[in-house]
Structures are given as structure tokens and as C-alpha cells.
Amino acid sequence: MAQMDLGSSVLARTRARGRVATVAVEAMTFYKPVHVGDLVSIHGEIQNEGTTSMRIGVEVWVTRQPSGELLKMTEAVFTFVAVDDSGNKRPLPVKS
User: Fold this and answer.
1) Which residues contact 6 (CB under 8 A, 6 or more apart)?
2) Which of 17, 26, 46, 67 is deepest in the core (most CB within 10 A)?
3) Would you state the CATH architecture of domain 2-82?
4) 2-25 pLDDT, tens per residue?
5) DSSP3 helix / strand / coil % (the chain, rounded to 5)
């Protein structure tokens, strides 16, 4: 879950053009366990945006070693809020 938060925060920080805070995680579903040696990939997509926040859908896929089998491990929705240097909410920048 921590890796999903870190991975999706990259997308959130890019969209917010600055700091963000995770305010919620919902709908986390675990399908299979990750094994030692698995190559883990985290994929995120912005689902929707508000004035200060965004919801990002996140999926975790692994490539099993040495078979190369590709498996979906888990998925969740993370909500991030753009924050200023004092940690207060701020509006998301206008998309360019």
C-alpha cells in the first residue's frame, strides 16, 4: 500500500505542480500476494478532479520471475489534495 501511495503521488504532484497530501484510500482490493523476486509495476490514472483534490485509480501488476507471467495484484482509489508549504489546501493549477 505504501508503494501504491508513493507511485500515485508522482502523478498527483505532477498534476498539482507541487506538494500534495493523501487524504483517503478507498476500494482497495487484494487479488493475489506479491512474492519475493516479483517485478512490481504501479500504474495510475486521474479519474476526476475537484477544485483542490483529485482521485487517482491505481493498479499494481507483477511480472513473476522466472516465468514472466503478468498478474494484476491489487487496485485502489487514492484521493490527494494539493497543499501549500504550510500544509493548507490550495487550488489545482489551471491545465495548460
Assistant:
1) none
2) 46
3) Roll (3.10)
4) 999 999 999 999 999 999 999 999
5) 15, 50, 35
